[in-house]
């Protein structure tokens, strides 16, 4: 039996520039962090040749081709897995909530299957394979940032180039800056989940007319990295988070809605300097940047939402258990 643990993520700025329709023409850039909320994948060899897959549903089939879960099916096919397996996923947070869960699932499952085959695999390879499965094979209208932050972990500045290369660089900052950023970030669940694909399809179709806004988001990602690396006043980071959210809303009308705007405005009125809805939009988790002395009144203002305490996670996908028979 093999168990992998793969982090979820928070993207601060630059989302949308990781879509191929943008970065095939000019470089994209995002600043993103893994967090200490995870997707767990358990893979165990099964007696016989059947496959049992447990997620929100349970499937029992004879061959990978019969599996209805598209990511599981394509991961097994990509690694030419034919012997029966039991695959179980458990997550700390709900899916379809803007935390990159589907890519964490893909990276974590690929990681476990590679270990099952006796392969040592790099974070880069996991991210590349996950992108190939989700974007090229399954034709999901998504970008590349989630797969890379799930594989690499940490606080990263990720660049996407027209030739298809992806550069993943750590945001180098003092320990005190890292800790203070952790202290000033608060995460709340709106109670609503949604599929990112519907919003992203519209966003992709609007890319040419929204290219200036996407360039602006890339620029904000660069500025955020510089603020953290230079150890400047973190409140400037919070204000940029607000600017990025206001810019992102111009990409597509369905990114936000009246209910999300009302929650966001309550947070700002209560003292937050900035924030954003995570993921493609229309539901999920809302992130706020708020100075510590104002956080109590922020929590009071958002009393009807579920707060999820978290910290940034320095590690990407990792194997946390391998049974003794394997080694």
Automatic annotation (TrEMBL):
Residues 75-154 form the GHMP kinase N-terminal domain. GO terms for molecular function: ATP binding; fucokinase activity. Keywords: ATP-binding, Kinase, Nucleotide-binding, Transferase. InterPro entries: GHMP_Kinase-Related, GHMP_kinase_C_dom, GHMP_kinase_C_sf, GHMP_kinase_N_dom, HddA/FKP, Heptose_7-P_kinase, Ribosomal_Su5_D2-typ_SF. GO terms for biological process: GDP-L-fucose salvage. Residues 232-302 form the GHMP kinase C-terminal domain. SUPFAM superfamilies: GHMP Kinase, C-terminal domain, Ribosomal protein S5 domain 2-like. Belongs to the GHMP kinase family. This is Putative kinase. It comes from Rhodopirellula maiorica SM1. The lineage of its organism: Bacteria, Pseudomonadati, Planctomycetota, Planctomycetia, Pirellulales.
